[in-house]
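User:
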Amino acid sequence: MKIRKIDVGFLHWCPGCDEAHIVEVPRWTWNGDEERPTVTPSVNMPGRCHYVLTGGVIRFCGDCSHGMAGKVVEMPDFPSDW
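Assistant: Predicted structure:
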């Protein structure tokens, strides 16, 4: 499962932060696709994680504070123990 819908939007697993991130709708615009989501604008958690999510692909920006900065990865499923 790529996302978990919640009252305010959805959660998805971030492989850079190794935790779930909340995407609040309508703060972000979401295409409604649960397997290959696209959101606009970019998701930014200042000083920690900044990325663009398009078609289920996460493009981490260079200002991330984790090792995934600048990398492009498929959005992972949630860990089985989460």
